[in-house]
Amino acid sequence: MTGEYPRQRTPWPRELVLDDQPGPAAHITRAKSESLIAGALLAAGFDESAPPQLAEALGTERHLDTERPAPPRRRGWLFQVAAVGALCFVGMGSASAAVMLWKRMVEPTPAAAPIVEKVRKPRREQPVVVEPAPVEAVAPPVEVAPAERPRASRAPEDYLDDANGLRAKKRWREADKLYARVISTAPRSSSAYVARVASASVRLEHLRDPRGALARYRAALEQSPRGPLLEEIRFGIAESYRALGQRAEERRALESFVHDLPSSGLAKRARARLEELAPRQGARVDEELESK
Amino acid sequence: MLPVESKRVSEMANDPHRPLAEAAARGDRKAAEALLRALLPRVRNLVRYFVRGDAEVDDISQEALVAVLRGLAGYRGEGAVQAWADRIVVRSVFAHIRRTRVAEKRHVEYTPDLVPVSNDQNAHGFLARRKAVRALDEVPDDQRQVLVMHHVTGLGVREIAEELAIPFETVRSRLRLGMARLRSVLGDDEEPEARSS
Fold it and tell me: Which residues, at least 6 apart from B36, have a Cβ–Cβ distance to it below 8 Å?
């Protein structure tokens, strides 16, 4: 490594390191991870189901012993497999038809049914290469729908993943239910901590339930008073008070937010909101009396 | 043998990925699979450092894994497999960026990052990294790339200049600007230059 750049003057954030520990890439489910690896192996010519001769014949030869790697031929592989399958099928079908015709000519039979059976036989023996199984392996990894996943061995983070998926699809109520499931499954886990904040956010922003949101935010704060989502929680509490119309509480929450977390990305918004609240000095006394 | 060289030889001998890489290069599917499984978390993390948001991380990671497998024939055992794979991942990311350069740049909204946490023990570290990388998302692409290459993958300024085919001074300037922007996003507005004066 060269030292031309004065690194000591600008220390790199210690969180931004490269290793194989979780983060900064998002969580990936085991199924998705396996699918991703299987796709890469297949694209690079490491397909277990295709024998080397077949792979070579189809143009997916293992190029690892060569200096120049072959270009990716993912889709070509499929088309060629399908083409070979189709040719085999047509060939076998033609052969069967010829045999059948010859039998009719040599020893005509009155019963049509056996002939039909003989024609059908090659169909049942269609080459397996026509089966679409490789398509799934080659295709880019697709998130499996929550309903299709096996339920028994699922961890709280898998439910959290699904809930976030539902939230992304704007299915707020279902997402909130799944967040609740994460919380009840492992209430003291970090997944539950994240689920509490996520649920609060959904309740506040989409379900018009600021009271429920406030309860969730408070529970998250109680679970981990100095947790990594502290800023979101404390700002969320202020926002919940705002939605509830409790201005005095909102102002107090914002003031303590700005005081305790001045460098937060949300501090600017908090200050701006405090300024909005400031001119209402006349109403301030009333609010405070109201809050008491 | 020089001390540095002997240390390097020792590191290579202890490299747990080396036997897998060698077997995979001979066409051993199980070894290739095990190698990818071992590299995947790091590859995904590195890709995420280079690209904004999570949407493209897995697609690019898969492309990078394919490139790693295809490059095994060219791996001469000089240095750790992980470091060698990092370089391939960086190139795969740049190839992807070049292909999608015309794509519209998206503004990253500040919203709570409510991603699943996979391991309670590492949860806080994970979320701290997520928060930090979101600050990196606010740094312009060209500055971000050199920052990641320099500080995350450990490449020197000269190596980055060669890799990106840009002048040495441009790399230095992007590093400075990028760092200033990152610090500003992270809440430390003091410019490096101001501090040194």
Answer: A37, A40, A41, B65, B68, B69
Length of chain A, please? 292
Rounded Cα gap, residues A23 and A162, in angstroms: 19
Does the pLDDT at position B4 exceed 60? no
How many angstroms separate the CA atoms of A205 and A196, rounded? 14
Inter-chain CB proximity A10 and B156 less than 8 Å: no
For residue B1, the 8-state DSSP code is -
Q: How far apart are CA A173 and CA B169, in angstroms?
A: 54
Which position has the higher pLDDT, B40 or A11? B40
A8 touches chain B (CB under 8 A): no
pLDDT band at A292 (very low <50, low <70, confident <90, very high): low
- Please report, to the nearest 10 degrees, the dihedral formed by the alpha carbons of residues B12, B14, B20, B22 taken in order: 40
Identify each DSSP E strand in A98-179 by its residue range: none
Rounded CA-CA distance A230/A196 in Å is 12
- Residue A19 makes CB contacts below 8 A (sequence gap 6+) with B42, B45
Are A190 and B155 an interchain contact pair (Cβ–Cβ within 8 Å)?
A: no
Is pLDDT larger for residue B4 or for residue A215? A215
Residue count (chain B): 197
Encoded tokens for A79: 């088309």
CB distance B49–A24 less than 8 Å? yes
- The answer, for A48 touching chain B at a CB cutoff of 8 Å, is yes
Q: Is the pLDDT of residue B34 over 50?
A: yes
Band (pLDDT 50/70/90 cuts) for residue A35 is confident
pLDDT digits (tens, 9 = 90+) for A222-260: 988 887 788 889 999 999 999 999 999 999 999 999 998
ipTM above 0.85, yes or no: no
Cβ contact A152:A134 at 8 Å: no
The continuous run of DSSP H or E covering B130 comes out as helix B123-136
- The pTM of the full predicted model, rounded to 2 decimals, is 0.51
Give the model's confidence band at B188: pLDDT under 50 very low, under 70 low, under 90 confident, else very high: low
Residues 6+ apart with CB under 8 A from B4: none
Residue B156 neighbours by CB under 8 Å, 6+ apart? A1, A2, A3, A4, B150
Taking CB atoms and an 8 Å cutoff, what residues of chain A touch B22? none
Q: Is B156 left (phi over 0), alpha (psi -120 to 50) or beta?
A: beta
Asked if A263 is an interface residue toward chain B (Cβ–Cβ < 8 A), one would say: yes
Q: Which of residues 72-101 of A touch B (CB under 8 A)?
A: 72
Q: How many CB atoms lie within 10 A of CB A198?
A: 28
